[in-house]
Design goal:
Order of helices and strands: EEHEHEEEEEEEEHHEEE
Largest sheet: 6 strands, mixed
Distance between the termini: 17 Å
Mean pLDDT: 83
Structural class: alpha+beta
Strand content: 25-35%
Helix content: 10-25%
Low-confidence stretches: 1-31
C-alpha cells in the first residue's frame, strides 16, 4: 500500500501524520461487542506492532469462538468478524486502544486469500490454537494449524451487504449509486484476482477529504456526517 495514502478514519485526528481515528461502528450494531471494540480506537501502525504484541498473539487460545489472551494482555479485547473454509478473522483492540485484525489460518486448505492493497504486520505460530476447531461441535469444520497473520483492520460494509440506513429503500438507492460509481474498481479486482464476490469486497468508510464517493449518513452517536467511500478487497487470491 502507498504509505502516502492515509489510513481511513472518521475524524481527521492525526496520529503520526496518519488519519486513523475510529468514532463510528461500521457494519455492526451499537450494542454489538465488536462495536464496543472498534469505537474510539485507532488503527495500529506497523512501527507500533511491538515484540510484546507478537508474544501475546503467540500465546492466544480459543474457546467458544472467543480469543483468550494471556495474563499480560491487560485490557485486550477481540471480536469475530467472519470465517470461511480456510481462516477466521478477528478484530483486536490492545490496551493502548490500537486496533488491528488477526487471521487465524488453516494451512491445510489455505489458498492465499488475503487483503489486497493493505498492510500485513507479521505472522506467528500460536500453539494454543493448533488443532482447535472454530466450532468445537463441528466434525469437519474449520480447524486451525497455528498460523496467525496480523494485518490492518478494514471497516465498512460488504459489497452485497450495505445497510448504513434504517430505511431499506434508502439503503438500496445508496448501494446502487456506490456500485455504479465504483464498478470500475470492482471490475479491476474481478479481472485480476480469483474468488471475487459480494462478501470479500468492502465499501470502506473514509474521511471526506479522501478520494472516494461522497455520502452523508449518521455516525454511531446519531450525528449526520459526510464520508468518502472506496473499495477494498479483503480476501482475494
Amino acid at each position: 500500500m502507498d504509505r502516502k495514502l492515509p489510513l481511513c478514519g472518521i475524524h481527521e485526528s492525526k496520529v503520526h501524520g496518519v488519519l486513523a481515528r475510529f468514532d463510528y461502528v461500521c457494519g455492526v450494531k451499537a450494542d454489538d461487542s465488536r462495536g464496543t471494540i472498534i469505537r474510539g480506537g485507532q488503527k495500529i501502525m506497523k512501527h507500533e506492532v511491538s515484540p510484546t504484541h507478537l508474544e501475546i498473539i503467540r500465546n492466544i487460545e480459543l474457546k467458544n469462538q472467543q480469543l483468550i489472551f494471556p495474563e499480560n494482555a491487560v485490557m485486550w479485547m477481540s471480536g469475530l468478524l467472519g470465517s470461511g473454509e480456510e481462516k477466521a478473522v478477528y478484530v483486536v483492540r490492545d490496551r493502548q486502544s490500537k486496533i488491528f485484525a488477526l487471521e487465524l489460518i488453516n494451512e491445510k486448505h489455505y489458498l492465499n486469500g488475503r487483503l489486497i492493497d493493505g498492510e500485513y504486520f507479521g505472522a506467528v505460530q500460536a500453539k494454543g490454537i493448533r488443532g482447535v476447531r472454530l466450532n468445537p461441535e463441528s466434525v469437519i469444520g474449520l480447524e486451525f494449524t497455528g498460523l496467525v497473520k496480523i494485518r490492518e483492520f478494514i471497516y465498512g460494509y460488504e459489497w452485497g451487504g450495505f445497510n448504513a440506513y434504517k430505511n431499506k429503500f434508502i439503503n438500496s438507492i445508496v448501494a446502487k449509486r456506490l456500485k455504479t460509481k465504483l464498478k470500475e474498481d470492482f471490475d479491476r479486482y474481478y479481472n485480476n484476482y480469483k474468488d471475487v464476490h459480494d462478501r470479500n469486497v468492502m465499501f470502506e468508510l473514509c474521511p471526506p477529504s479522501q478520494k472516494g464517493v461522497k455520502v452523508f449518513m449518521k455516525d454511531i452517536s446519531g450525528v449526520r456526517r459526510r464520508f468518502s467511500i472506496r473499495l477494498r478487497g479483503i480476501d482475494l487470491r
